[in-house]
Known about the structure:
This protein is an all-alpha fold. It has helices spanning 3-6, 8-15, 18-30, 38-48, 54-58, 65-85, 92-108, 112-128, 132-146, 157-192, 198-211, 222-238, 242-258, 261-265, 267-283, 287-302, 310-331, 340-350, 357-373, 377-388, 397-413, 420-434, 439-449, 459-471, 482-485, 488-497, 501-512, 538-544.
Amino acid sequence: MTKEQKDNLFVLIKSLSKSEKRQFKLYVGRIGVNEDSKFLLLFTVLQKLKTYDEAAVLKHGFVKKEQLSNLKAHLYKQILISLRLNPSHQNIRIQIREQLDFATILYHKGLYTQSLKILDKAKSLAISNEEKNIAYEIIELEKVIEGQYITRSMSNRADKLTVQAQELSQHNLLASKLSNLSLQLYGEFLKTGFVKQASEHEKITKYFNDRLPVYKIAELGFREKLWLYKSYLWYSFLIQDFLGCYKYSKKWVDLFHEHPGMIKLNPVFFLNGYQNLLEALFFVKQHEKFKEILGSLIGITDEDGFPKDDNVQSLTFLYVGSNKFNAHFMEGTFKEGLPLIPETLEGIRKHKTRIDEHHVMVFYYKIASLYFGIGEHQKCIDFLDKIISNKSLQMREDLLCFSRILNLVAHYEAGLDYNLEALIKSTYKFLIKMEDLYLVQKEMIKFLRNLGEIYPNELRSEFIKLHKKLKIYEDHPYESRAFLYLDVISWLESKIENKSVDRIIKTKFQKIYGLSKSDNSVFNLKNNLNWEPKDDLTEFYNKHQNFNVK
Length: 550
């Protein structure tokens, strides 16, 4: 991490838009601070610096070194207060919190009736917007005031508050258990990726079932349903049930369309839902539906009424950009996807303080894969090296592993045989350490290790042998997922047929979408997937997979 990123105040100032800087100066003027104030001088100095430099700040002479820390803390607080007052950062959640603060002040002033009046309105607003945690806090303050017997409210007031508190507590407890489960499963997915054998499947299933709380779907509110669908989604991803991923990501997105007011209040969760839906459609190779949903996401995020704060814009860049790459991977249009590379690198630069390193590396892997598809192997290696050489990286183990496998193949294709043996050894050592050896990976390493002993006139037949070996894993419940990261089959076919990888994939894509409409393959979903909230897919899932829609 760079020095400037370590300084929170500097990062905050650099994140401010022109309007937010103007808002801050207006706020400072309203509180009667003159231009010579030290924290305002500090703000002026820091916003002009390109990188954080403490020596440059002290050089101006308005603050001593021992005073700087306190001055920075004061400035940081004042900027946050200013941002809170900015209309662009106002939402229902902040408004409710503000009303709770006002009611608390009135209570401490002894204006109990006024306090209760504000609390009652704030509570109704909180409950109607599914802000049950804040609603519970409000009721707790109401109970404190009523407990003093000062207001002499109606006789059953205490009973009503008690019942409300109990109901909210139960909802909040259920939401907490589901959100914990969802986060734990997501954390496991980031760490290890998909399960690779039956024992891992059993372990994850037991973990999920042991922690899934008892619930009645009809009694769940928006937030509890959201966490429920998220929990099922991450469980489905882990066990490689991509139809299940589609099912629950669609329920997730449908939930927002059924409660459109929640989109503006929870834009991050809304975008997350679309991202997972697109990923599921990508995995089940549903190009037409994928393009439709991607177009829908782009259209929604471009609407004037959709939230445009920094966090949302960064997520939009991540999700839209990532899925544009996936669209080209599905179609085999690798060359047509090349303009995405400078766009993506510029986006990474623009959003660097708000994008975690994991997602940056995922972009690098997609860029490397794009270059590999068009035969630009050295460029592919350059981007893979950014991943492999990153020693502090915390990301999915499976992606780290396949970065090394693709690196081996790219070195072979680039004719860099002199370094191949050392790379094979280091890759194998890494895979053993990560405990992430797919059979596909083992066969690839074995093949590449023996390349030096194969005569040029025997290469094609050896490619055919390897293709035959790996082809059987395409439909394997665990091994097939190796091909999600590296389309080894298409690469082998490109060597056998002496064609480019992108041409092979493009031909496959055209054949898939030339299938008759009567084809009932699980991957021929384009006539079965209807984008309607009312569609719970009961018939479809009962037909293709033996589980009931919950």
